[in-house]
Design brief:
Belongs to the thiamine-monophosphate kinase family. The structure is a single chain. The protein is α+β, with helices and mostly antiparallel strands and 371 residues long. It has two domains: 158 residues, 60s Ribosomal Protein L30, Chain: A (2-Layer Sandwich), CATH 3.30.1330; 155 residues, Alpha-Beta Complex (Phosphoribosyl-aminoimidazole Synthetase, Chain A, domain 2), CATH 3.90.650. Helix content is 37%, strand content 23%. A seven-stranded mixed beta sheet has the order 8-10-7-11-9-12-13. Strand 4, helix 4 and strand 5 form a beta-alpha-beta unit. Helix 3 packs parallel to helix 4, helix 3 packs parallel to helix 9 and helix 5 packs across helix 12. The protein is globular.
Length: 371
């Protein structure tokens, strides 16, 4: 921490977490004992979920980590965005199973360059996301870090026994669908990485990140930057798809459409054949791609961090599923179909063309290009 605002670990935890979520609010979400003891105590399934005594539920557990200079820097995100996105990434994993997110524990490793106020703002974002998705934050850990901030969140969820949706359920003859727009987050990051010289001239992290958003709004890329900084996990879509009973496979788009489609194909031992002309595109994505001299499909296939869902469903049930989701204001786009064959992903670039193989790549933390 910076010199004058150094606190001990427990004082820091109290400063960042105290009075954030009312005791009664946490109780409604099954929290018996939250932050303050060696471990949290939670109910297996809270009464607020409407679970009957005879209904069986399964637990879901996931973890995600954000590392400064790998996932974010002073230009790409505000401190609040870092906290928000760290929890949102976990919530998206629960959504991809069809589940309900419930309890989170947070670990933060803080370098000397960070003030207490900056860490507090990270927790502001965490709690904002938690409030939006009804997640109770029940504990965690704090440590020092030699140079960069590391934020890790572990999240639990629940789902009715037998309803979990896996990557391995895709069947030949299924429609391949997505539940929203893709490529916007990657385009937003591309915009931000090209801004350093234009956004400099301000000193503080906060001023720098705010200047980047202002420039993005002026340039017509504001929606792309906001999507990168504050992606919206698809919990409602996941719950609806799980409740239908005929969705066969599901995954979230965190590392790019191509990567997630390959995961479905390999887990299910099938081929996914996609149609480029069926991929939905936002106006802001197309406009920025034209300005940048890029093909927007590159961001759609290989960008990631959109947190919409990709899955498969019997083609005979697709229109019914689309109507169900549309009633809740959620789009459902058919972007291809599943075929028998060796695991792989193919794409028709235009109607009537030959299909081409889509390489198995997306965001990879261990790629040389990401170091």
């Amino acid at each position: 921490m910076k010199g004058g605002d150094r606190l001990d670990e427990f004082a820091g935890i109290r400063s960042w977490t105290e009075d954030r979520q009312k005791h009664s609010w946490q109780e409604e979400r099954g929290v018996v004992r939250g932050i303050g003891d060696d471990a949290a105590v939670v109910q297996a399934v809270p009464e607020a979920q409407g679970a009957g005594a005879s209904e069986a539920w399964h637990s879901l557990i996931t973890v995600d980590t954000m590392v400064e200079m790998i996932h974010f820097n002073d230009l790409t995100m505000l401190d609040e965005d870092v906290g928000y996105k760290a929890l949102a990434a976990n919530i998206s994993d629960i959504a991809a199973m069809g589940g309900i997110p419930r309890h989170a524990v947070v670990t933060v490793s803080v370098p000397p360059s960070y003030s207490m106020e900056r860490v507090k703002r990270i927790y502001d974002g965490l709690y904002a996301c938690a409030s939006q998705y009804n997640v109770a934050i029940v504990g965690g850990d704090t440590t020092s870090s030699p140079s960069h901030l590391v934020l890790s969140v572990t999240l639990t969820g629940i789902i009715e026994a037998g309803r979990s949706l896996y990557r391995s359920g895709a069947q030949p003859g299924d429609a391949v669908f997505i539940t929203g727009l893709i490529g916007m987050s990657a385009a937003g990051l591309d915009y931000l990485t090209k801004l350093p010289e234009r956004a400099r001239g301000t000193q503080s992290h906060r001023e720098l990140a705010a200047a980047a958003q202002k420039l993005a709004d002026t340039d017509g890329a504001g929606a792309l930057v906001r999507q990168h900084r504050r992606p919206q996990p698809s919990v409602t879509a996941g719950r609806l798809l799980a409740s239908l009973g005929y969705c066969h496979a599901l995954n979230d788009v965190s590392d790019g459409l191509a990567s997630e489609a390959w995961e479905l194909a390999e887990a299910s031992q099938v081929s996914l054949v996609l149609n480029e002309y069926s991929l939905p595109r936002s106006t802001s994505l197309q406009q920025y791609a034209k300005q940048a001299g890029r093909n927007p499909v590159d961001w759609m296939l290989y960008g990631g961090e959109d947190y919409i869902l990709i899955g498969t469903i019997a083609e005979s049930n697709f229109e019914q599923a689309k109507e169900e989701l549309n009633r809740q204001g959620i789009p459902l786009y058919q972007i291809g179909r599943v075929e028998a064959g060796a695991p792989g992903v193919w794409m028709y670039r235009r109607e009537g063309s030959d299909r081409t193989a889509i390489p198995k790549r997306g965001y990879n933390h261990f790629s040389e290009s990401n170091r």
